[in-house]
Amino acid sequence: MRLAKYLAHAGIASRRAAEEVIRDGRVTVGGATVTDPARDVDDDSGVAVDGEPVAPARERLVYAVHKPAGVVSTARDTHGRPTVVELAPKGAGRLYPVGRLDADSTGLILLTNDGELAHRLTHPRFGVPKTYRAKVRGRPSEQDLVRLREGVELDDGRTAPARARRVDGQEIELVITEGRKRQVRRMLEAVGHPVIELRRVAFGPLRLGTLKPGSARRLTAKEVEQLSAGRSAPRAPRRRARRGPRG
To answer: 102, 114, 144, 155: which one is catalytic?
Structure first.
């Protein structure tokens, strides 16, 4: 098995994050530093990260967490800020976040020890939808929503088409299948409505529901199976509107 995949299976990090760990020179195989993520290894290869031996994860764990504002979406923070991993129950073992939410954003984030599942949920080619509710400045028009649905031009390229609807007044629900840095905030700013508050309410088929801020719960086997299958979140109903000329 390739080294990056081995680390992902062992719950060290997602496959992409594991590649970075390897390239940073933090991984040894048989006592020698290895920087090639494609290096073939097995359970007898003596793999270690930061000097700690790596053993395959015994049980797949996935937790849903309601991230409050001010908590960072990393396993550890060099500035001493609280992390989402600290919200998991004590004794849950080594977990890491699936994707990220900005420190000032709230809502649903997943923690797991399954790197392959994290890869499937976050890699753009799998198209797993993430649903957000955003309170914005101003009152978005139907034309603004059409622009979001068609994709908007950002400094790192045009976004994929999104699902967008106005919930109430200044609140918008936006469903995206990408995961660019601060993407939702940048999309809404691009159509003239900067975000005031942002909350993720669903990740694929999993919804935030009544989970309280700062709380975590372990997903059931059925919920994990649905996530693994990549099933979409329920489509939010919206009224059809006649398109006007683009301004």
So the answer is: 102
